[in-house]
């Protein structure tokens, strides 16, 4: 396990090796998306079930057409508006992608990240890079190199350091696989901003329907402690709150995501705060949610999944 440079990492990925790289959302565990053996290693190293497809990362929008069989005008509009950035588009896939990347689905998820090191790495690699978050299955996504290294260790030989992730939440996923654009995962770009760019509302999959993004299982971002809306014994519990709370001192441990009530700051702190609380070996963590609009929705979505 060495901290690498973009040039060596890009050569390694071309040769079928795995590379952990920073993005503005969370760290990714990347493999050449055109090399099915390399992609299979991603599933093995992560301990991820094969039915859960990966997001394909590219350096620019021009690399998308060969990967897809259609690029609807509305999807292009979103790409133009939000790429590079924390938005993933699900589009009908082309035959050139191995089935393992898309878990046998007829669609592929693609995105252009905006972290400068991700872009440099992807540009030098020249190949599309399939990458899930760089954590073992069912752990919280890594927002620093240290998180990724502690989770994956020597199972991966190449790590790129890009500092703490600026956004801190995974990308928003919008699917163009059926008639109307569908919000599959809330994330770094607020739903409202996407609807404004599209001049139309997004469809939201019903809560009780089969998960459309197979990774969106109700329980996903899982700390070991029990997360609840009301701790039974606050003096022995942790508190994880969006912002300052009048009774925060009555908890054994406390994490305030943003004292100045900034969604951006709260999102960037969320996963590290969950990890810190989890390391205190508390049995219980009380959650106080963010306001339910903008990025607050994505923050609350992760908190609800962590407490499912
Ligand atoms: O911000 C992000 O998106 C990060 C960074 C590394 O780019 N990646 C990430 O990947 O969060 P992962 O694998 O942890 O989550 C990918 C999600 C999963 O829920 C998966 O089911 C969904 O994307 N997905 C991938 N391909 C899909 C497809 N063809 N149709 C529907 N959902 C898909
Ligand atoms: Mg993940």
Task: Walk me through the structure.
The protein is globular and about 55 Å long. Helix content is 28%, strand content 17%. The protein has 308 residues and is α/β, with parallel strands linked by helices. It has helices at 6-14, 36-46, 73-82, 116-125, 145-152, 191-198, 263-279, 295-307; strands spanning 2-3, 19-21, 28-32, 55-57, 87-92, 107-111, 129-131, 158-159, 172-175, 182-185, 226-228, 238-241, 253-256, 284-288. Helix 1 packs across helix 4 (116-125) and helix 7 packs parallel to helix 8 (295-307). It folds into two domains: 2-198, DHBP synthase; 226-306, Threonylcarbamoyl-AMP synthase, C-terminal domain (Rossmann fold), CATH 3.40.50.11030. The longest helix is centred in the last third of the chain and has 17 residues, at 263-279. It contains eight helices and 14 strands. The strands form two sheets. It has a ten-stranded mixed sheet, sandwiched between helices. Strands 11-14-12-13 form a four-stranded parallel sheet, with helices on one face. The structure holds threonylcarbamoyladenylate and magnesium ion (MG). Magnesium ion is lined by residues 132-133, 141.
């Amino acid at each position: 396990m060495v901290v690498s440079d973009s040039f060596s990492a890009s050569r390694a990925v071309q040769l079928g090796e795995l590379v952990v790289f920073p993005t503005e959302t969370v760290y990714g565990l990347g493999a050449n998306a055109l090399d099915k053996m390399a992609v299979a290693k991603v599933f093995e190293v992560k301990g991820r079930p094969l039915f859960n497809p990966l997001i394909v990362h590219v350096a620019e929008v021009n690399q998308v057409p060969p990967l897809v069989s259609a690029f609807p005008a509305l999807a292009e509009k979103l790409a133009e508006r939000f790429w590079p950035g924390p938005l993933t588009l699900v589009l009908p896939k082309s035959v050139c992608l191995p089935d393992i990347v898309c878990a046998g689905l007829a669609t592929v998820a693609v995105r252009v990240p905006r972290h400068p090191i991700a872009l440099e790495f992807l540009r030098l690699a020249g190949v599309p890079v399939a990458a899930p978050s760089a954590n073992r299955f069912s752990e919280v996504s890594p927002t620093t190199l240290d998180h990724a290294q502690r989770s994956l260790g020597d199972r991966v030989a190449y790590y790129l350091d890009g500092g703490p992730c600026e956004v801190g939440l995974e990308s928003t996923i919008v699917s163009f696989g059926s008639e109307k654009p569908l919000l599959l995962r809330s994330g770094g770009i607020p739903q409202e901003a996407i609807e404004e760019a599209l001049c139309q509302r997004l469809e939201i999959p019903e809560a009780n329907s089969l998960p459309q993004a197979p990774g969106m299982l109700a329980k996903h971002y899982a700390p070991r402690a029990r997360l609840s809306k009301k701790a039974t014994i606050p003096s022995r519990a942790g508190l994880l709150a969006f912002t300052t709370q009048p009774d925060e001192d009555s908890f054994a441990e406390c994490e305030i995501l943003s004292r100045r009530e900034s969604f951006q700051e709260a999102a960037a702190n969320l996963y590290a705060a969950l990890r810190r609380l989890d390391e205190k070996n508390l049995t219980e963590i009380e959650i106080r949610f963010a306001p339910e609009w903008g990025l607050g929705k994505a923050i609350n979505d992760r908190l609800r999944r962590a407490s499912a």
